[in-house]
Amino acid sequence: MAALVVGMAATAAGAGIGIRHLQKTGLTFETVSGLTILAGGLILLGYGATASWKSLHRWFRLVLVPVAVVVLQLIASAGVAVMYAVSPQTALGVGTPATEGLEYRDVTFTTGDGVELSAWLIPSRNGASVVLKHGAGSSRTATIRHAGVLARHGYGVLMMDARGHGRSGGLGMDIGWYGDEDTTAAVTFLSRQGDVVPTKIGVVGLSMGGEEAIGAAGVDPRIRAVVAEGATGRTAADNEDIRAEGHATTLEQGLDRLTYGLTDLLTRASPPASLRSSVVSSDADFLLIAAGTAEREALAAASMRSADPQRVRTWTVPRAAHVEGLATEPEEWERRVVGFLDSELQP
Q: pTM, whole model, 2 decimals?
């Protein structure tokens, strides 16, 4: 029994650390350490399973089948929690706003809990500005083309690295639980710029960045408009909101609680409000963009729109993959996003 328990914990921890680091940073010390722990956990699981098999009589061995299914589910949930909470630092990618012919400067600003965040600032020409947020495992360089579209229409753009990503400090998370605090600090920074009218600030986010944008709007009334592309969820409540007809099995609900409960134990960040409740708490207007090939995105957008149809617009981009709206339909993306921002920030 001890071998099984230790093996489960080691397998989950090793998978969460080793596999995620391998995906994002290659063969580093952390990757090798995680994969070594994973191998040790699998060995212990194998030993424990073999011992259990030998200790039971023939027909009683059938009990091990459902037990094995439960064990695998628990390991998967715990491993996901580790991936969420123990995110490796992501390097800054290739390119700068100069790629789009834009003038910019390197800036830093500090969050309320003392973390220094790094960004590129493109000045505003129309008095309005937006915080531009990338997705998990990425950096601000993934948003260069989006920044180009916005800046060409006069918008100032603060292209920030989320904490633990790019050149920003702090410990990152892959589900953006620090997003409310980071985004609020970015809005404060923008509001102090001489070329920005403090009442004309919005947030544009992709994937995790979109979820952070929605969450931040629920706690920061200075955010007047939100464009979120590829946002699905970052809490158990979000998963419940987008399940068909709101139904889930007891096992699904239990595993969700386990995953996010363990995530909460593994990080100093507090679980944020659900995206739907953030929409309700906010006074901002929202444009939610979903990929045509990702059903969960459309379900999430529909759930949030049902919370307040007057303030939430949705657009599903046919044939688009996750956060590929601009790449798939560049003219329509520009028309819809800029038109929405103009209506909310330039009335």
A: 0.88
